[in-house]
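Subgroup meeting minutes
Present: P.N., E.W., G.H.
Scribe: E.W.

1. P.N. recapped why we're keeping a running log of single-chain structure predictions: easier to compare across weeks, and new members can see raw inputs and outputs side by side.
2. G.H. added today's entry (138 aa).
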Amino acid sequence: VAVLVRSGVVEDSPVGVAVFLRAHAADLDPTALGEYLGHHEEFELAAMHAYVDQERYGGMSIDAALRSFLLPFRLPGEAQKIDRLMEAFAERYVRDNPGVFRTADAAYVLAFAVIMLNTDAHNPLAERRLDRAGFVAM
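Output recorded in log:
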């Protein structure tokens, strides 16, 4: 990103970076994009929020919105990065769908649960699958 800003390809602002990332997401490495969006430094964090703010989820179910959100990138491996991304997603979802959830925290918990269930269902390395009792106990 720094090289693109220095060369004048990308505007030197979080919104400029977010617009570029959104426009070129199909051409970018999904893992690298997820890692960048998950950074906690001030500029990258602001770019991530600007990136999420370009999304519109009005009228979408939370699982469809989550799928749309996650399609361009791969969630980073670090829990704190995932947490930041999911918080931003939940806040955007609640703004676009007033009355569906009381708080962004409720949307966050459900979205995170969907990700955990999806990971459990599709992870070939999982030795034991999460059953209903295990899910409820989480």
